[in-house]
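Q: I'm writing up a methods section and want to include an example of the input and output format. Could you take the sequence below and give the corresponding predicted C-alpha cells, formatted cleanly so I can copy it straight into the document?
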Amino acid sequence: MIRHPSEKPGCVKKPFGKVVLCVSVLFVFGVVPSQAQEAGAITHEGLVNATLEELWAAWTTTEGLKSWLAPHAEIELRIGGLMRTNYNPDGCLGDEQTIENTILSYEPMGMLSIKVKRTPAGFPFPNAIQNMWTNMYFEPAGPDQTRIRIVGLGFTRDEESQRMRVFFDEGNAITLKQLQEHFPEALN
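A: Here is the clean output for your methods example:
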C-alpha cells in the first residue's frame, strides 16, 4: 500500500477507518492528544470605554503599553515579534524581572495572540508556562466602547499547571480592571 508521507504507519486508507485506527494506535502507545489533557481555558471579558482603535493601540504599541500596563514596555507587532514588559518602576527592560512574550498571531483591530518566552526571575511555574498562551479579542460595542475578551489557554490537569491557572485567572482579572480604569469615561 502506498501512503502519503504525512500518514502514520498502520493507518488504513479508508475515510472513517483511518481515523479510528490512528486514534486507537495513539492511545495504545500512550500518545494522547493534548486537548484530552487540557483543563479548560480561563476567560475574562468586559467593556472598555474606548474606541476599537484606541484599545488596539493600548495593547499593540509601545506608548500604549506604557500608558496603562507597565512602566517599562515595548512591542514589535509582527508574527514572532516580542512584547516585553517590566512592572518594577525601578527596573528596566532586559533585567531579570522582564517578561518577554512572543506574538503568535494577530488580526489587526481584531485579535492578538501571545505566548510567554521568558518569565521574570523566581516565576513559580517554569514547566507549566511552556504550554500556555493567551488570546485577546477586540470587538466594537458602540461608537465609544469596545468589548475585550482575554482567554488563557494550554492549562493541563497537573498540579503546577492548576496553580498557574489560578495565578493567571487572578492576574487577568486585574489586567482587565486596570485597562477599564485607564479609559474611565465614555467618549463624547
